[in-house]
Amino acid sequence: MTRLVLALALVVAAAAPVRAQTPDHDAAYAVVTKLFDAMRARDTATMRASFVEGASLQSVGAAGVRTDAISAWIGGVAGAPAGLVLDEKLANPVVQVSGSLASVWVDYWFYAGDRFSHCGVDAFVLGKVGGDWKILSVADTRQREDCPPYPGS
Questions:
Q1: What percentage of the chain reaches a pLDDT higher than 70?
Q2: Which of 24, 45, 106, 127 is most exposed, with minimal Cβ within 10 Å?
Q3: Strand 51-61 vs strand 115-129: parallel, antiparallel, or unpaired?
């Protein structure tokens, strides 16, 4: 029975379509990594340039959906205590691209300095604007408990 299940799993996996990683795939994900690199460096100009005007930010949790302004998030980064590194570590990205629309779903672990704060998933929607990928919206989950260990540690 175990061999039959394994054989069926291999047939299904072999039949699944494989999507090649494209330059647009890499470029869309690079916007996300550049955003968090800029956050670590407190480069709020680069952070702001990652978004289209009017981009949205939502957090989804047990209490419902909370909407925040992108400018408030960026202002919070700028106003964090001097020397405190805000570090959002990413892993397991799933990037989908269709023409000028892309999505990035990625697990994250957030640290304020050396202190772990929370983990969750970021879901970005990006659009190609004037030849460049820009973030149209981001939604996230946030949890402080039952976080798996960061795979890079």
A1: 87
A2: 45
A3: unpaired
Please write the tens of the pLDDT for every residue from 53-100.
999 999 999 889 999 999 999 999 999 999 999 999 999 999 999 999
pTM of the model: 0.84
For the domain spanning 21-141, the CATH number is 3.10.450.50
CA distance 68 to 151: 29
